[in-house]
Amino acid sequence: MFPGQHRGDWNDSQLHPTIQKLMKGYNKYLRPNFNEGPVEIGMSLDIASIDAISEINMDYTATIFLRQRWRDTRLVFPGNGNESVSVDGRLVSLLWIPDTFIPDSKRSFLHDVTVENRLIRIFSNGTVLYALRITATIACNMDLTKYPMDRQVCTLQLESWGYNLQDVVFYWTRGNDSVKGLDTLRLAQYSIESYYTSVSEAVYETGNYPKLVLHFALRRNVLFFILETYVPSTLLVVLSWVSFWISQSSVPARTCIGVTTVLTMTTLMMGARTSLPNANCFIKAIDVYLGICFTFIFGALLEYACAHFCTMQHQTLEELQRDLLRDFRESNGNGSVLPARRVRPQQPVELASRADEEDEREDGGGRTRHPKAKSPDVASHHPTGLKVRRSGCCAGGRCVSSVRQASRTVAHVFSVENPHNIDRHSRSVFPLAFLFVNVLYWLYYLCL
User: What is the pLDDT of residue 71?
Assistant: First the structure.
């Protein structure tokens, strides 16, 4: 009897023999071949669409056409093997159907516009074709360590809920050809690399149950991420190298470039993480590359700080030398500094009087006059290696205190002979190092 109709509205002789069996004496609560062996159920799939693949939730949403076939001898009616009758989907409540379910499904529903999307077709030999249109959100465990150069393998599993292997047996009707639609499917971020089917069994505490599995591999399209993340981060690194060609005296310009690139890189790193799960176990390939770029950008900023510091210290040392010369020339004595030798922090600075410079001087009679004997307090050695020779005519210890103060300053000076060489070397060291790291990075994540 069709839904919405009364028994008296129909003449049983006018109904199809199969419908008459459904209305008379057909026990839907007993499976076919009851006590005679398991029911063999063949399955096939059509993948209509894969709507969304979420890395945050680690799942995908797919719309599938699921078709199941089995043979029920209680529904045999006269006719050749190809003769069939299509029954309204609402009569499914009168038939025995498999209790197939998707174990990894998080959410699923059966489409019901304009009616429930079911198909029931019964053949004369008792074969039943039962088709459904289902949309399900299915879990997919993803390994994101190579994101966005990753390759994910997802599955679609079909199991029997209550009937174990002694009751039903699942099989793919045509092997790998039982799955259609994946070859022509187009996804936004992925391309379907390959797929295959397998037959296994699910082991639970209540017994062993039949299981069919569809495996399909998804390869992420990296071009979007190259344009969105890799190219901008690389250009930021190159932009940070511009400061190597700017004069060290242009402090605002070089500082502005360094700080701007660091802040922009930080914003780019935060934006790349918004679409990914915040899990500590995943150190993704894109995180590694952004970390490399941030390191080079921050290193360029530190390079200018180091070069500027060395330049200032070098200028301080030159000013110190001029101050020492001025102090001794203004002193009451006749002390002077040897101007021929440049003062370096690694070498002692010798300050001597003109009388002590001359080892010998001949007088008018041809005799040699030796330098005056120096008292112990004339020559002194500072712990920093600054050797000072002073004459005793420095009144009030003015030159002595000046030299001592200068010696303490020189002791804390760490200078480079030419601070501009730092920028000159950085112009080649930074690009070569970045190129070398990029080669290692892409070889590892694309080839290994």
Answer: 93
Query: 188, 176, 185, 163: which is closest to 55 by C-alpha?
Result: 188
**So what CATH class is 7-221?**
mainly beta
Give the fold, CATH level 3, of 224-356+379-448: Methane Monooxygenase Hydroxylase; Chain G, domain 1 (1.20.58)
Q: Where exactly are the structural domains of the chain?
A: 7-221, 224-356+379-448
321-325-326-327 Cα dihedral, nearest 10 degrees? 100
Digit-coded pLDDT (tens) for 114-130 = 889 999 999 988 899 99
* Sign of the alpha-carbon dihedral angle for 286, 287, 292, 296: positive
pLDDT in tens, 183-239: 999 998 899 999 999 999 999 999 999 999 999 999 999 999 999 999 999 999 999
Alpha-carbon torsion (426, 428, 433, 435), positive or negative: positive
Minimal CA–CA distance to 423: which of 208, 294, 248? Answer: 248
The dihedral through the CA atoms of 330, 331, 334, 340 has a sign that is negative
User: In the chain, how long is the greatest CA-to-CA distance?
Assistant: 161
